[in-house]
Amino acid sequence: MKNSLKQNIIKKISKILKLKTYKQLGKIKRSQYDVWDSLVHLHILFTIEKNIKKKIQGSKLNKISNGADIIKLLNENIR
Amino acid sequence: MKISGKFVYIKKISLKDALFIYKLRIDKLNSFFLHNPPKSINAQKNWIRNNIKNKKASDFVIIEKKYNKKIGTIALNNIDKNSAEWGRWISTGNSVQNIESVVLLLKYGFKKLQLKKIYSLTNANNKKVVNFHKNSNANYNGIIKSFFNIKNKKIDAVKYSFNKENFKKFEKKFIFMTQLVRL
Questions:
Q1: Contact B81, B46 (CB under 8 A)
Q2: Collapsing DSSP states into helix, strand and coil, what is residue B16?
Q3: What's the pTM value of the predicted model, to 2 decimals?
Q4: CATH number of the CATH domain containing B30
Q5: Which label site among B28, B83, B94, B145 has the fewest CB atoms less than 10 Å from its CB?
Q6: How confident is the model at residue B119 (pLDDT cuts 50, 70, 90)?
């Protein structure tokens, strides 16, 4: 159940980031990926908070700079 | 003059902002897609003096509300009766702060100045900002060939524009998303 929630969020974020497969998420960096502008970033944060239904510290959200950070954040908050 | 949002406010530039703007513009990371930065703080001060007198431009400093810290610049220029160009956008804040600065500037243009159209001309190589415009509900108006001359290179501009209606959609989307996300 929790794994499927995580997978579901990862799929949604991959779609927002226009990735061909969700497996690419862990490999991309915000600074090097042009699709990941500030509006897309806000959309990603919104998707995370909306789906896990939990408030995440602003400082943690601010630190997201690559796909691996997103996966880490999801792992920490969906247990 | 100060226009306040939830996370940032924007205020008209003054000579007191010269050092901040100068440092922002000489930063290699920020200036990559920009015209040559001013050669000195005095040159920056002269630019501000002229800009304050220029009725066709409204330049603002973006200030983070929480710490009252300057984080960037944004402007309307080529202001005429119905339209203006928005730009000179350099913002080092987080995503929410950066987007809100745009919302506040556009609100100023549409509500205070009663403009009908606010457009942007972006360096075509600045893909991230081009994507920002694309995702913001702005209308795509095409590419203007060799519009910029940056560091002696001719570069195309990508034009996007807002009218009151698509700005309202953009503002609404921003408010909706930031109700949940608080950075």
A1: no
A2: helix
A3: 0.91
A4: 3.40.630.30
A5: B28
A6: very high
Domain boundaries, chain A: 2-74
Residue type, B85: E
- Beta bridge mates, B123: B157
CATH architecture for residues A2-74: Orthogonal Bundle (1.10)
Least Cα separation, residue B129 to chain A (angstroms): 7
Cβ of A50 within 8 Å of Cβ of B180? The answer is yes
Residue B1 is encoded by which pair of tokens? 């003059």
**Contact criterion met (CB below 8 Å) for B53 and B73:** no
- Out of A34, A40, A58, name the one closest to residue B182 (CB): A58
Identify the three-state secondary structure at position A46: helix
| CA dist list (Å): B168 to A40, B86, B137, B141, B176 | 18, 16, 10, 19, 12
Question: According to the model, what pLDDT value does residue A55 have?
Answer: 78
ipTM > 0.95 for the complex: no
Q: What is the dihedral of CA A30, A27, A20, B126, to 10 degrees?
A: 30
Number of domains chain B contains: 1
Q: Do B95 and A39 touch (CB under 8 A)?
A: yes
Enter the tokens of residue B10: 């924007």
Q: How many of the other CB atoms lie within 10 Å of CB of B114?
A: 10
Return d(Cα B9, Cα B63) in angstroms, integer: 5
Report residue A15 as tokens: 């779609």
Structure tokens at B98: 């950066």
**Which residues in chain A are contacts of B99 at CB distance < 8 A?**
38-39, 42
Least Cα separation, residue B173 to chain A (angstroms): 10
At residue A63 the predicted structure's pLDDT band, cuts being 50, 70 and 90, is: confident
Query: CA-nearest residue of chain A to B98?
Result: A38
pLDDT tens across B142-160, in order? 999 999 988 788 999 999 9
